[in-house]
Amino acid sequence: MLYYSIFLNPRKFKGSFKGTRYFAMIALLYWPLSSLPRTNAIKTTRPTRSIIQEQKEIILLNDKFFSNWRPKYSIDFSFKFIIPLSLHNKIRKSSSLANGEKTDIVTYLKNNLEQNRLDLIEYRDEKENNNSINLIQSQQKQEALDESEEKITTTILRKTFQTNCLTKIWSTYKSLVENGNLKYVEIRLINRLMRVIRELDKDPVSRLEKFQIIHKDIEKFGMTRTQKEQNFLIEAYLDNKMIDKARDVFNKINEWKYLGISQLGKLIFCNAFNMMITAYGMRSYQLEKEGKPGTKSEDLEEVTKLFTLMHEKQLTPNGTTKTILKNIFRYHFNNDAISWIRELREKNFIDVGMEKEILLTLLDNNNLQEAIRSFENMKARNLEPDVYSYIPLIHQLARHGRVDKALELIKEMKEQKVLLNTVAYNVFIGVYNMASNHEQASQLIEDMLKQNIEPNARTFGQLINAYAKAGKADLALQVIKKMSDMRIKPNEYIYTTMIELFSNLSDVKSMENVFRHMIDNRIDSKEVTYYHLLLGYTRFQDLTKAFQTCQLMIRSGIEPNVRTYNALISLFAEKGDTTGAYLLFHEMQQFGLSPDVYTYTSLINAYVKASDINRAEKLFSEMEKAGIKPSTTTYNVLMSYYVEKKDINQVQKIFNEMVIENIQPDNFTYCCLMDGFCSRNDLKSAVALIHNMQNRKLKPDAQIYTVLIYAYIKSGNFSEAKYLYETMIKNKIYPTFVTYAVLIDGHARIGELDFSRKLLSELISQSISGTVRQSDYKNKLLNPDIFTPLMDAYAKQGQTEAAWAIFEEMATLGVKHNLYVYTILMNAYYRGRNYEAVWQMWKVMKKNISTSLSRSKFYEQLSDLTQQQKKEQKENSSMTLAESKWSSSLLISFSLLYSSRSVIQPPPNQAVSIMISALTAAKKFKLIELEWNKLDKGGFEFDCLNYNHYIQSLIISEKIKLACKLLNEHLIKGWEKGLALSNIYKEKFSIQSIKYRQELLKNSSKFYPHKKTLLLLANYFEKINFEINQGKDIKNFTRYLKELKDEFPEIFIITQELLESWRSNKRKAQNYQDRKP
């Protein structure tokens, strides 16, 4: 085998043999030693260029061979006299022969040399020997000159490369060609030259011209061309969009019998295939960019041919090839790419690595069905999928809701004992969380530790996120504790998740603690963090901290976006503040933020809360004109208004419009419909809606049952209400605190206080034992609103001690007393005629409250503050970009204005009326006037009841002029407007019921005088007239009455008419009683 080694792999020998010297070495090994004189030279036609001067180690093949043989002279072998002429030319060009041809020559030499059939021609003639020696010396001199010239040429070219100057490099090359010195340049330097040209010459046309010239010069000087030069030419043609020319060069390469031997040699040919596959695979992409029609199907056919030829030439596709095919698959994904891959798969051209790339591409394009088919095909072809194939598929299955299939694959991975990593466990945790199997998800962390796989922050983040969505704050905090024990610091994602959790639970204190801890650990907050903080304050209806959050966000360099404004607008909407909501709506457009469906819905809700349905419906029309499709919530907001007004016809109209517009109703939609039917006592239609819900694949929830329970309680059907409650429990629909509040309040109203007390105790017990879902009842079960119905029932029945007992129980359970709780106790003491206790409770309430500005005064101050901010913005140049842009925005103005107000919560209007009534009964008129003035100066917004009670106290204390003034300014004018609206309605429409007309009158005017107020004033006037008739201080009383009549004529007329009407009705009632037998 030695001759094969020498010929096919000459690098193993220390000597450098080229051309015929390969065969000379073979001849030397097989030649009999006796026939080879050491002093005689063998006649040759050309001398060798290398002289063997050192001992060469030759392996002994048989007894005839010897080692460490060193000839005296250089060995010159041409072997014309040994080898037939047909092989001689091939031998001279042996460096460019294919492996098969080389093998044929070696076999020939072996057979003839072993049989000793080659004759030596010895020239013993001394003259001829001298001529031979002279010839050798001459050839050696020429070789030395050539070698010197080669070194000089190589040095010049290398130094020129170092300049990185294309002009200089190209000029040097051309001078070498002109001087005929290109033949001295090694082909590897030519390759380097072409590589430098490719890097420096950015003009594809110029680059192609240079490569074409170099190829012609190589051919002209008879230099051997390699695949590298061909690749440069192919690439240049492709850069110039000359794919046919590139294909011609590529086809000539493929005419070669052998394409590389070693992996490195094959790589060069593989690169040529990669370029052509890319060119054909992405040809349509280039054509489409130029506005020309693509040829996608033809391109895929060409790619298939090239890929097939690649396998025929025994070239293994490398990583670049797989990447190219993946990109082609992505580009042609919507154009027979899947069928193309199937064709390659049938030819067995797709290995496990390529299958993995195809799988990922299918998943990226959301073609889950084909991805599953591809995955199953991998297993059918015995291509074992690894963790990098399983995990992306499991992740996508979970995202598409196919949790069962994802769990099957997880089980399969465990059975196949696939090596898992941290990412795999993270995905497993996510899947188990989606399956609500939180225990198994938590157990996976223990499994990771047993396998010496360290969990990372994302592992714990997945688990915390699952607990957060389930509202399980305690379990989430336990995971945080475990992270701390393992010295893994929570990242921004975990902190934000915890903030979102406490925001959803309205636990503002815990939310703030998490955010404070985040800041202390120097973790930058992103927009989403501030957004959840903002939502938390929005749910808690804390305007001050909501706007302070916006200010902090802007100072952090984060600009508010649409959802920031949406959250704030919804906060104003919940308070019914249309002015603030509209100001924010207008400003966000000024800052280039386009309102979306949530913006319009929140603004519509603001006007609905303010009972301005005309403006709400106008906004609804504007929304549709702007191309924004209303959502289910948008329709629900409008429906809620008409439900409150008991206009079931309009509610049904909106519902039908939703169905026509293909807007899917939700549970709240059906709540509105049911509430509408229940308001007409049509419980049969309300219950029938449950079947309609089920047809739409909606499951009745606690809110649906609560509406029906409330309707049955209101109608007095307590047995049916109880049945619905039991049905909820049976179907594992957990009642909300509203459900309990409705049941407790309903039974308390009919005097079943013991049953209400039992329900309350049951609720408290469930909350303490933790048997009720935390997500529904954290911060809601033990809510003041759950205690107030029973407490109010005790108060109205005069059971002050029972009401006080609940008050103390709330304090024991840690339930914060809200203002309504104080109001109920005040009412209890008032009904028990304990007026001093009412006053003391009022003073206790005042410690927990401070009055707020009226809206008119508030927006006056806001306007002044905005102007001041704009002035400061011009003077301050040290602001950040975000601060500079948003410094004059309403977000900062509201923040500064609310932070300057020490507002906690204004007292309830009902509490103010109870306080006035109690002090009036106690004849403490000075205290009433003092408290009224304090509230008025603080901007407190008095309601109709407050004005009536205060005016009554003024009449009783005989401060008539002030009473008439307040009555005229705040009650009479509003009443007159209401009467006018009622008369207009009466003229245009038929009044169906007096009750409906009275409802219209109340809604058209928030302020109107009570009959008691007017009768008190009328009685006072009668008293004055009586005194005048009795002759007491006639002059002063007459003058006083005249002044009042002149200043308040409407009041005199109204009171006189009302008094006469009241007396007339009283006489009729008396006559009716007298006629009774």
Automatic annotation (TrEMBL):
Keyword Repeat: yes
Keywords assigned by UniProt, alphabetized: Repeat
Pfam families in the record: PPR, PPR_1, PPR_2, PPR_3, PPR_long
InterPro entries according to UniProt: PPR_P_subfamily (IPR050872), PPR_rpt (IPR002885), PROP1-like_PPR_dom (IPR033443), TPR-like_helical_dom_sf (IPR011990)
Family matches, as SUPFAM superfamilies: HCP-like, TPR-like
Domain PROP1-like PPR residues, every copy: 366-492
PPR repeats mapped onto the chain: 386-420, 421-455, 456-490, 526-560, 561-595, 596-630, 631-665, 666-700, 701-735, 783-817, 818-848
Recorded family membership: Belongs to the PPR family. P subfamily.
Name of the protein in question: PROP1-like PPR domain-containing protein
Organism: Glomus cerebriforme
